[in-house]
Amino acid sequence: MLSFIDCHLSLKKCSPFNGGKFEGWGTSFCWWPNRIGYLDELSEQAAKLFFDPKEGLGLNIIRYNIGGGDDPTHHHITRTDSMVPGYAINPSHDANGYHWSYDWNADQNQRNVLIKVAECYGKDLIVEGFSNSPPYFMTNSGCSSGSVNAGENNLREDAYGAFASYLADVAQHFSKEWGIHFQSMTAMNEPDTEYWHALSDKQEGCHFDPGESQSVMIIALREALDERGLNDILISGTDETGIDCQINSINSLSEVARETIARIDTHSYLEGDNEGLRKLAQSYYKNLWMSEVDGGDTSGFNAGEMGAALWLANKIISDINGLLPAAWVLWQVIDSHISSYGYMGNKDSGKPDYTGGYWGLATADHDSKKIILSMKYYAMGQFSRYIRPNDTIIQAGEHVIASWNQEERKLVLVMVNDTNEKQSCKVDLDEFALKGAKICPIRTSGSIENGEHWNRLESSVLTENIFETELKENSITTFVIR
Fold this sequence. Notes:
By secondary structure, this protein is of the alpha/beta class. The protein has helices at residues 32-36, 40-51, 108-121, 160-178, 212-227, 243-252, 255-260, 274-283, 306-323, 375-384, and strands spanning 5-8, 24-28, 61-65, 88-94, 97-102, 126-130, 184-186, 234-242, 263-270, 287-292, 327-330, 334-338, 362-365, 370-373, 392-394, 400-405, 410-417, 423-428, 438-445, 452-456, 460-461, 466-471, 475-481. The chain has an eight-stranded parallel β-sheet with strand order 10-9-8-7-6-3-2-11. Helix 4 (160-178) packs parallel to helix 5 (212-227) and helix 6 (243-252) runs parallel beside helix 8.
């Protein structure tokens, strides 16, 4: 009988990005810290649960949302977390361009969570600054949620330099005043879509056509950063919604703009030619991140609360094996909120049904001041707690990903069984000379109330260079072999 997983691991199939060293796992700060950051109890819990490498997920990448800020007379965004304040105030416009001043007390909630994470777990922290929209007064629609026609550019033709200056000023202030230095920055988020329309009830967003518009923005941001002595901040781009759209975006950039970006960031909501994007990044000598994804789907058979967890695990495996990226970043770790009072006049969504599909890994209960975890949280930890920065990702087979650390002589395998039966697995480890090494299995299965949560199983010894095991039904199992 064929094994459910049957593959041969080869060091010839290592990730080619960032010198073969994995940079880590992360989350967007758009928008959950904006909602919980007013409360130290929730902020400190979040820092520990999501960023502590020993007791939490061990995330080490943050994509910080630099808000554009909407027209203060607008009140159309009704999501309680997504109305992120901008720093620019008192705007004006004349023949000499755009003028504004800064309110550095704005966005205290998101910044509070960032600083708590940095204080406790900042040693290996990577922070990227990104924008969903320019400030409203630089847009054609006068609205930071998008243009009147969602398929048209919303940044005014004469505002590219002003927008770049705004982002660069924020980066400079973060570095000088708060000790947070962005590793990278991007001015666009899913730019080649028709999602972002004026007066949306959801979020900020801005369309940029592929080609000239995106190229001018990239070059303007590079120039603005350099003018402020921030030459070491990398420019990434272009965070398109899906893989094929990302390929088109990179191919459409001017030569100067393409040379300006140091890393290709892609979202993977829309799957496509992963190998094509990977080879494109290699051909231009660019690093590659999978910089945002999540979803409300499920996998498995009668999996209950594991359904959403199995979906996330399968998505991670698909992205990692297909793209071999240097980092993998989740959308929001907290996507739902419970509150008797709501926030800024709007009602919170409440806790989703954890037996179905949902976004995020946890729910913030503002009444009890506690974060309610889901099985997706434990699914994420099966990867992020054991495949660590500076490990090397190795392309593996279906249902499995692998990493290798030469210095530590450590091999990590994460395997998913999304069937309702036990499954046998076989992996050829002949290239790694690990015979006699200790095998430590860790497993997640079942439910929050009665399931396994990073359950350490009985260890064993690798007696041959072929690793064989059996996987529990509807489970995620990590094997640390060293």
